Structure formats: structure tokens, C-alpha cells
Amino acid sequence: MGTPRVLAQLQAYIERRKFAPDAWYDRGLEPSDNELCERLENALNQCAQHLMHAVETGSPRAAMKRILKHALYDLRATELDTEEREMICDEFHRLASIVSVDISGVLNQWMYGPVLGTLLKITKLFRRRPKVLESFSQECSKCHAMMTTQVLGKDPGSVQPAWTIIRCKACNEYDLLRSIEHATACHSEDYFVEERLDRGVHNEEQARTRLEQIRFFRAKR
How many domains is the chain partitioned into structurally? Predict the structure, then answer.
């Protein structure tokens, strides 16, 4: 675990507004009330600060998992609706990914309760995972998080967009994803796809101009 990079990612995570109105709109939801959003924001940021201290002091991953679990269970699932719980789980998953800790079982039990959470964990063990043909990573230009793309399908006859504008899940920075020749299906847990640019219409310079436009105008929302 590269300590400076992890600390930079955690700091970027703290600076990002995780429960701002746009975060809800991106999921097709109406924002929850301001008081709740502020409470959730503070809870996640405090957890990230505790993780920063754990990273700085060289704590083992088991200790970081305990930090994440305690912070999650401080939020009472029964007082939140389904959409709020799902959003919280996504944010804790992002935090856990930054420090390379797997808390999927903890999230399932918090989200669904101990019985159903355990059943989901068992089901996951027997579920056939899609075959990953290849994968590659590129670094976020702002928080330096590694954003990995998994290629799940390819067709030699397919034509893909030359450029894809993506948004880092850790800090919301926009970047260009390099083209993936002949890919028909891709997956990533690390970024959102914001816009696709056709290779017959946009060259690299035009794609980068569009990227700067998005960075400028969407930052003002």
C-alpha cells in the first residue's frame, strides 16, 4: 500500500461532497433532508480521518476493517430508507477500496440484516463471475486513485468510441479514458461514464477540449 498515494486519496475523499444534491440526482433520486445529509457527510469524513491515522501509523488491514465497521454501524440502518442505505454502502465501499480492505460481508449484513446478509454471502460464493478478458488501469489526474477497467467482451468487427470521458468515484474529477479496441462490454467500480465521443467526429485534441469544457461548466453546478 503506497502510503502517500493512499493519504492523498483519503484527503480527496474528505473534500468531495458525497451527499450534495448532484450526488442524489446522478442516481435518479431526490436529495434527503439537509440535516441527514450533513450527518452522513460528517460520519464518512470522520471515518476517513480515522483511516488516515491508521495508514500513517502502519495499522494492519484488520484494524482498518474495524474502523469501517464501527463507523457503518454507528448509522442505524432502520432509521434510513433503502436508497439512503444503498448510497451509504457505496460510499463505505469506496473508502474500503482506497485502503484495500474487503467489507462486502459487513455491508450486506448492515444493509439486509444478519440472516439475509449471510445468505447473500453464500450465494455470491456459488455465483459464476463473468470472465475478464483483459484489464488496465489509469491514474486519476486529481487524487491519483487507480481506476481499473475490466474488458468482459470483444468483437473484432465492433467499432468503439475513440474517447470516453469518465468521472472518478473517489474525488469526482473528470478524465479521458483511453480507447479499448473492439471491446463490446466493459466494467469498472472506480469511475462513472459521463460522455462518449465518436472517433469519426472527434480527434484527440477535440476530445481534450470537450473534457476541459465539462470540467469547467460542471464544476460550477
Answer: 2
pTM: 0.66
In 3-state terms, what secondary structure has residue 99?
Answer: coil
3-state DSSP assignment of residue 77: helix
Structural domain harbouring 86: 3-125
Distance of CA 33 to the CA centre of its chain: 23
Q: What is the pLDDT of residue 125?
A: 46
Q: Is 155 in the same domain as 179?
A: yes
DSSP 106-150: HHHHHHH-HHHHHHHHHHHHHSPPPP--EEEEEE-TTT--EEEEE
95 has a pLDDT exceeding 70: yes
Count of all residues that appear for the chain in the document: 221
Q: Are residues 68 and 154 in the same domain?
A: no
Provide the 3-class DSSP secondary structure of residue 170.
coil
Q: What is the DSSP string of 10-67?
A: HHHHHHS-TTSHHHHHTTT-PPPPHHHHHHHHHHHHHHHHHHHHHHHTT--HHHHHHH
Number of neighbours of residue 191 by Cβ within 10 angstroms? 24
